[in-house]
Amino acid sequence: MPQINTRFWIFLVTTFSWFAVVQSAAIAQQISDESTIRIGFLVSEDPDTDSLSREAMDAAQFAVDEINNEGGIDGKKVKLITRISDGDWGASSLKSVELIYDEEVHAIVGSLDGRDAHLVQMAIAKAHIIYLETRATDPTLSEANLPWFFRVLPSDRQQGQKLISEIFIKRDLSRIALIHADDYEEEMAANMFLRLLRDGGHPEAKIFAYDYRSPNFEEITENFGSSVEQGVLYFGKAAHFEGFMKTMKDSKIDLPVFSPLAILQTNNNPENVTFVCPELVLQKNESSFKESFKQRFGYDPGTIGAYSYDGVGVLLEAIKQGGTETESLQKELSGISFSGGITGQIEFDENGDIVDKTTICN
Question: Which listed CATH number (3.30.70.100, 2.60.120.680, 3.40.50.2300, 3.40.50.300) goes with 157-277?
Answer without folding.
Answer: 3.40.50.2300
